[in-house]
């Protein structure tokens, strides 16, 4: 089955509202409406409403947030909630990005709560999974991503799991210029697809987009997209420049797999 490819930009701690306005001016001029693909922009929470305002005439482009707190509301100074995200027009939430896990110490148990909360709010979680270099070298990559996926979907029902997205982002490939080979990406995407199939059945699992992320750029985007089981791309650094990002979101798989 061929899924509509998903191109998600993770701007991380970059792009002020002013930057985002100039980004959109250029990006929208270069990027006509896309019917056959889903484009998602994930700015910081502070920049989010500038982006949703700028996309008022472009409902084909979705907006997402990079994180939400694991509780719906309460005394959590500095955090953002899933309901706030939904209220300002976000449709997607990145959950468990490797920087949340490794820089901010977020645990699998938090991913369980966050994915359930996001799905209950009827937003789409993009659950990010990926192994460290040490884990890959010790042959544990598949076990690690299976564990992270199991935690993420533990409190979601099967319909919610069928409506989510996954992103495989090997930690050693993020922001390093080292990309997984298309074969390595496909192997792990296959592991994730099989684990999903065990939980929700093959047909439903085939409909869950599994994105690859980690040093994607305009030079390698098409090759990665051509790999079996790679249904889209989650892009950090290379999504910041409107020309480069426009060229990435317009790329297609190079083979007829
Ligand atoms: P990168 O980041 O494209 O800069 O490697 C990807 C990500 O962290 O989502």
Write up what this structure looks like.
The chain has 257 residues and is of the alpha/beta class. It has a single domain, classed as TIM Barrel (Alpha-Beta Barrel). The chain is built from twelve helices and eight strands. The protein has helices at residues 17-30, 48-54, 82-87, 98-102, 108-120, 133-137, 141-153, 158-162, 182-200, 202-206, 221-225, 242-249, and strands at 6-10, 38-42, 61-65, 92-95, 124-129, 165-168, 210-213, 232-235. It is globular and about 45 Å long. The site of 2-phosphoglycolic acid has 13 residues, from strand 8.
Keywords:
single chain; 257 residues; alpha/beta; TIM Barrel; 8-stranded parallel barrel; 8 strands; globular; binds 2-phosphoglycolic acid
What's the CATH first level?
Alpha Beta
Mean pLDDT: 96
* SSE order, one letter for each helix or strand: EHEHEHEHHEHHHEHHEHEH
Order of strands, main sheet, comes to 1-2-3-4-5-6-7-8
Poorly predicted tracts of residues: none
Decide which structural class fits the backbone. alpha/beta
Number of domains in the coordinates? 1
Judging from the principal axes of the Cα atoms, what is the shape? globular
Radius of gyration from CA coordinates: 17 Å
For the largest beta-sheet, the strand count, sense and barrel status come to: 8 strands, parallel, barrel
Fill in the CATH topology: TIM Barrel
- The percent of residues in helical segments reads 40-55%
- What's the name of the CATH homologous superfamily? Aldolase class I
The termini sit apart by 10 Å
Percent in strands: 5-15%
